[in-house]
Amino acid sequence: MTVSPITVCVTGAAGQISYSLLSMLAAGNVFGPEQPVALHLLEIPPALPALAGVVMELLDGAYPLLHAVTQTADPSVAFADADIAVLVGAFPRRAGMERKDLLEKNLPIFKRQAHALNEHASKHVKVVVVGNPANTNAMVLAAFAPDIPPANISALTRLDHNRTRAQVAARLDVPVQSVAGVCIWGNHSSTQYPDITRATVDNAPVFDKLGSFETVARDFIPTIQKRGAAVIKARGFSSAMSAASAIADHLRSWVCGDEHVVSMAVPSDGSYGIKEGVFFSFPVRCMGDGVVEIVKGIEIDEFSKRYIDATAEELYAEREEALALLE
Ligand code: NAD
Ligand code: LMR
């Protein structure tokens, strides 16, 4: 049986993250070894020559699943009939900046792209926002793309989720695949709450082995919250290889389903007291075909509640700031 190609639009396609991501999409590492992919690559005009070089490399990769590649600076072409949109294109954070410092620069990009997505993408398009501040950019996108169901829009916190699993594995000297039960609550920012209170290794709880509440608050949590800044300081650029890998994980879980609970920033439905109107990272189950359910009924202890409340407050404030900026 011939499988029809899936159309995947990637914005910021000549940038660092895309340079790692595009080969994964073309090689079948995201949607599986039977699924052909048509890539629609969007850039700003000054970056089109660099994008042409990336496209040469994609063709030189001779990927059997790469059905077609379109390169353009026109969002209406890039988003045309897109089944999946990966919104990476934005200014990255530099050393000393907080992600919210990017609000003013990046929000207008997402407002403009919302209109184009709304007009030109498939009505079932699934969108993952990567460009920072990712949660608030996703909120803006949902606000200005009224025909796309908000449930089809998400923001990436899988990188934080993967960082959390990797740190648990490193600290306990166990294989990363044995670690489960972690999740990220809230904003993809330094207020995010990497929750290891229910972490398991081979299904056995391990929180006690990772320290006391005091040491976890002093060491483990800030390590994850500040990991993006640590990579920027060390590399001079923001994380790209690990971000691309997390995007691949996010899309694979979302489209193909996942037996494990993962983390995604999705529109809040009021769960855990988080007000509607913000994109909040929750522990979620991906049921396949784009169906995502927030995991309900987790008992939130006082320790976790303080963190969850703080990151929610940051997102409410970012929302107000964003809406005022865009008025
Ligand atoms: P980069 O500067 O290497 O690439 C960004 C690309 O986007 C550039 O090529 C630029 O020309 C392009 N671009 C800018 N405006 C555009 C527009 N309007 N339309 C299309 N393309 C546009 O940056 P990068 O390292 O690839 O990071 C991209 C974004 O992802 C940054 O905002 C960064 O902070 C963010 N990021 C998010 C996560 C996450 O986990 N959510 C992780 C890492 C990086
Ligand atoms: C990250 O988490 O590595 C990215 O969001 C880059 C950043 O700005 O920290």
UniProtKB/TrEMBL annotation:
It comes from the Eukaryota. GO terms for biological process: malate metabolic process; tricarboxylic acid cycle. The keyword Chaperone does not apply. NAD(+) binds at residues 106, 130-132. Residues 157-324 form the Lactate/malate dehydrogenase C-terminal domain. Its EC number is 1.1.1.37. Keywords: NAD, Oxidoreductase, Tricarboxylic acid cycle. It catalyses: (S)-malate + NAD(+) = oxaloacetate + NADH + H(+). InterPro entries: L-lactate/malate_DH (IPR001557), Lactate/malate_DH_C (IPR022383), Lactate/malate_DH_N (IPR001236), Lactate_DH/Glyco_Ohase_4_C (IPR015955), Malate_DH_AS (IPR001252), Malate_DH_type2 (IPR010945), NAD(P)-bd_dom_sf (IPR036291). GO terms for molecular function: L-malate dehydrogenase (NAD+) activity. The active site is at 188 (proton acceptor). It is an enzyme of class 1 (oxidoreductase). SUPFAM superfamilies: LDH C-terminal domain-like (SSF56327), NAD(P)-binding Rossmann-fold domains (SSF51735). Substrate binds at residues 93, 99, 132, 163. Signal peptide: none annotated. Residues 8-149 form the Lactate/malate dehydrogenase N-terminal domain. PANTHER family: MALATE DEHYDROGENASE. Belongs to the LDH/MDH superfamily. MDH type 2 family. This is Malate dehydrogenase. It comes from Mazzaella japonica. The lineage of its organism: Eukaryota, Rhodophyta, Florideophyceae, Rhodymeniophycidae, Gigartinales.
